[in-house]
Structures are given as C-alpha cells and as structure tokens.
Amino acid sequence: MKKILKYLIMLVALLTNMNLLAQNAHFVENGVIEFEKKSNMYAIIKKKIKDRDESYVQQAFDQYKKNNPQFKTAKSTLSFTKSKSVYNWPAVNETMNNSWFASDVLADLKNTIVTDFDSQTSITQKSIYEENYLVKDSVRKINWKITDETRDIAGYECRRANALIMDSIYVVAYYTNQIAVSGGPESFTGLPGMILGLALPHENITWFATKVTEVAIPDKDLLPPTKGKPTDNKGLYKILLEAMKDWGEYGKSQLKAFLL
What is the C-alpha to C-alpha distance for residues 128 and 254, in angstroms, rounded to an integer? Predict the structure, then answer.
C-alpha cells in the first residue's frame, strides 16, 4: 500500500511538473526566418542530358563540373505574424551565366508570396520569361502525412511530414510547433506549426532555415506585391499551357516548375 501511495505521489508530481512546463512554454508568433535554398546542379543536369549521347554534351557537362560547385545556393526570408506571412528574396548582385547547363527553372525560381492565414488566400508574384504575373488564389491544400521522425533545424526540434503535390512531386517537410504559425517557404503551408525544412528529393532541391529571429513585424512589411498581370492558378495554367504546347516533355517540366 505504501509503495502504491509513493508511486501515486510521484505520478502527481510528474504531471504537475509537465503541466507547469506546458504553461511556461514559449511559442513564437512573429519574426523572420532566413532560408537557404540548395539545388544539386550536378544531379539536375545529369537528368537533363540522360537521353543525349552526343560526346560534346558530356564534355560540356565535365567542363561545367570543373568550373562550378555541385550546389547552387540562394538566400530567402519569411517574415510572419499569426495572420500573415511574406516570402521573398533579398536583392543580390549575381553574375549572369547564360550556359544551358547553369540554368534551371525550379533552381532559379524566386517567387514573392504573401499568405493570409485568416482568409486562407495568397498572392504570388511570379516572373516567367520576363513577364510578371500576380496570382491570387486560395492557399494550396496539401494532404500531409505526419511521421515520428524528428531533426533539429536552426535550434528547433522539427517533425517530418510527407506529401505528394501536383500528382507527381514528392515533398518532405520538417515543421516545429514551437512556432505557432502554419506557414513555410514558397507555397507550402498547412502543418501544425512552421515549416523550417523542405525538400523535393526527386527534383534535387531543398530549403532549410539557417536562423529564426523573433521580432515584431510592421504591417507595411506584410503588404502584397502590386506589379504583374492579375490572374489565378487556373488562368496561369491556361496561359502557360498555350505558350508551351509545342515544347514536348521539356515544356511539361517547365510548366510544373512555374506552377509550384
């Protein structure tokens, strides 16, 4: 009887301690997240040329590998509050490389996205072959499957979730419920916390947070972009489908990248 009473006291003490920890837990609701996007260009180019057996193509690829790193990197930021987020790309001086090997639509994609979590809508500024579009539509619905796998990203414990979008793009995301906003980089949202890690394994591209800064975000920093032809996702799909109707398999890959 004494042993049972002892265990009950220990259990009550443990539950009380856990409850106090939960009450004192700090959840971030506004701030800025810095992301690094990494594109494995060696793997991307290898897939591009897999059906081409001309010797000069392989020679050009070998030359590219001698002169360029395996990963192309780019920095982006996500400013967020409980109700809105803005995902964009800080202006940087880039050395233009017009090589066919060096360019890839998905690797070079730099959308500006404003997400309204209350109305579940977004406005995305997309630059497509020197034409700007403002795509206003509802937030993408993603059927996430949450797993038990975890990893540390930028000092936060994150849980893994998997999904399939656009019928064929496999997505791996890592989110933390310590940031109480259902947001993430690019157009990826819908998990019970902020996405700090994102990977498209078959596309050889990742986005991972490198730093999270809790700071108040003024309303003026959450304003949507205004330059571009207004449309929605269906409208943009029709525009691109018509423009790329004679591009074959290459057009299909371009279309998916621009609609991501």
Answer: 10
Q: How far is CA 62 from CA 100, 119, 216, in A?
A: 14, 50, 48
pLDDT in tens, 185-223: 999 999 999 999 999 999 999 999 999 999 999 999 999
Return the structure tokens found at 175: 């989110």
What are the Cα distances from residue 46, in Å, to 61, 64, 200, 214?
8, 11, 17, 41
pTM: 0.86
Lowest-confidence segment of 36-50, 123-137, 239-253 by average pLDDT:
239-253
3-state secondary structure of 67: helix
Q: Quick one: DSSP state of residue 113?
A: E
Measured distance CA(210)–CA(32) in Å, rounded: 11
Q: What are 146's two structure tokens?
A: 């949450």
